[in-house]
Design a protein that fits this description.
Strand content of chain A: 35-45%
Oligomer: heterodimer
Number of helices of chain A: 3
Largest interface: A-B, 14 and 13 residues
Distance between the termini of chain A: 75 Å
Structural class of chain A: alpha+beta
Strand order of the largest sheet of chain A: 3-2-5-6-7
Helix content of chain B: 55-70%
Largest sheet of chain B: 2 strands, parallel
Largest sheet of chain A: 5 strands, antiparallel
Order of helices and strands of chain B: EHHHHHE
């Protein structure tokens, strides 16, 4: 009987996704990187009204802690209209969905984001923000 | 002659098409059939009035295939189109 139980528990363990999804496990430790690009240079970026950096010619990479809270990023440049991107982190749902063997949950991205017409999330966690003169 | 913006709706549509189809657009440079570059040429042709074939000749310039990042590719397509036709879609 013991042997049967051991074999059954092993089969169950291997049939679930408990051994995969290293990316999501890693997210507990360090969060996710979000990359922002813009059509113009010298754009100031604010995280919930706190300045966090500049886009200067290239991309700006920011580590986003997955705490389940919505993060609002605002892009500002003198002479241009402000653009806001809201990224809502949702680690727990995805993590437990995976552990319980429901598959890769392809319809969840690591951030579930809302943005205006001038911001594009063209691949997971990669944003292009188009500033327009105002 | 001053360059002319394609307008917000057309610019949005073209930007979105390039960013979301970047991999397919780059793949088209190495294939005999070029469905994604042709579609982009049609979008640009609609709003500039320049014949699709002329736009496609600009887009199939091999130098454009060398940009390894969607944003760089987007900006260089915009520059190339502006230089050749006087129209641009990325806000300055």
């Amino acid at each position: 009987m013991k042997k049967v139980l051991v074999i059954m528990s092993m089969l169950f363990a291997f049939s679930t996704s408990a051994f995969g999804y290293a990316t999501i496990v890693n997210a507990y430790k360090g969060g996710d990187s979000i990359t922002f690009d813009s059509n113009v240079s010298d754009v100031e970026i604010y995280d919930n009204n706190k300045p966090i950096g500049f886009i200067k010619g290239g991309s700006f990479v920011y580590k986003l802690k997955r705490d389940g809270e919505a993060k609002s990023f605002t892009f500002k440049k003198a002479g241009y209209k402000d653009v806001t991107v809201v990224a809502n982190t949702n680690l727990d749902t995805v993590f437990w969905f995976n552990v319980l063997g429901a598959g890769g949950a392809p319809f969840f991205s690591s951030t579930d984001s809302f943005f205006t017409k001038n911001a594009y999330e063209y691949s997971p966690n990669q944003f292009y923000v188009e500033m327009q003169k105002g | 002659m001053a360059s002319k913006n394609l307008g917000p709706d057309a610019s949005h549509q073209i930007t979105k098409f390039i960013l979301f189809n970047y991999d397919n657009l780059i793949a088209d440079y190495y294939e005999p059939q070029k469905p994604y570059l042709s579609q982009l040429a049609v979008l640009l042709s609609q709003d500039t009035g320049i014949p699709t074939q002329n736009i496609l000749e600009i887009l199939t310039n091999e130098a454009l295939s060398k940009y390894p990042h969607p944003i760089q590719y987007l900006k260089h397509v915009d520059e190339k189109i502006e230089t050749s036709t006087g129209y641009y879609f990325v806000s300055k």
